[in-house]
Amino acid sequence: MDSGQRADGARIVEYEPGDLTCIVEAGMRLGELGALLAGQGQRLSLDPPGDPTLGECLLDDLSGPLRHRFGTMRDLILGVTVVLPDGLRANSGGKVVKNVAGYDLGKLFCGSRGRLGAVERLALRLHPLPVVARSVVVDGSRWLALHRSQLVPSAVDLLGGELHVCFEGSRRSVDVQLASLGGEEADRWAEIRELQQTLPGRRRWDGEPAPLVRPGPRVAYTQDAAPSWSPLAERVVEAMWTPS
Q1: DSSP state letters, 62-111
Q2: What is the C-alpha to C-alpha distance for residues 138 and 8, in angstroms, rounded to an integer?
Q3: Which of the residues 30, 47, 150, 229 has an alpha carbon 20 to 30 A from that of 128?
Q4: Is 145 helix (H, G, I), strand (E, B) or coil?
């Protein structure tokens, strides 16, 4: 499926619903892509605050509460077309999950903030839209028990001593997991994303207090958090040492 010509670098180049993949231009905004995919009952499982472009999501390593289960853009990108500072255009990866090959430029560019070049196109892995999504709030002290349990939440955030937990999937699966965890049913993810947008600092979480914590990936969002080394260096190490 091709979305047709767009002059602003913001279109779907290819979309294969049966393969759960699509190729998009980097200028397309996350909200626009989400609206187009929803018509096929699918989504890109990435939910950072605001409505960034797909290129920004990759270069700035943006993510939201769904990072707990689905990871960041580096976990959802199958291939990338980039333009290097000298004007050379380079491609890496493939457009289907079983056909990813070549040096993983997508992971290398994730978090590079444009230092390595510009992103032109991205091949992305998609997921089906869940039938049901429900959320509860429990005491923050229950994180370790939840982490060690057989429950499979899509999002878990720690805020003000409370653990916000979202379950997605079939109605029966969600009902069973909610009954197992208990807690007060409440959906405050919009507020949590708004809070995240006001916290520019991002650092590794080792149990210390922070305004917003994503305990699964061990990320804390703070007012200021100067890393001991650059985000680019961190992404290079991850790209070199993490298996594809």
Answers
A1: ---TTHHHH--HHHHEEEEEEE-TTS-EEEEE-SSGGG--S--HHHHHTT
A2: 45
A3: 150
A4: helix
CB 125 within 8 A of CB 77: yes
* Stretch 143-150: mean pLDDT: 96
Q: Is 234 exposed, middle or buried (0-12, 13-18, 19+ CB in 10 A)?
A: middle
State percent of the chain over pLDDT 70.
84
Residues 122-146 have a mean pLDDT of: 97
- Residue pair 154/168 in contact (Cβ under 8 Å)? The answer is yes
Sheet with 12-16, strands from edge to edge, namely 12-16, 21-25, 118-125, 77-83, 89-93
Mean pLDDT, range 96-102, rounded to an integer = 44
3-class DSSP assignment, residue 167: strand
User: Which DSSP letter does residue 17 get?
Assistant: G
Q: What is the mean pLDDT of the chain?
A: 87
pLDDT at 101: 46
Angle at 100 between CA 98 and CA 103, to 5 degrees: 160
38: exposed, middle or buried (Cβ count in 10 Å: 0-12, 13-18, 19+):
exposed
Spell out the residues 6+ positions from residue 217 whose beta carbon is closer than 8 angstroms to its own.
Answer: 67, 68, 71
Half-sphere exposure of 136 (CA within 13 A, CB side): 18
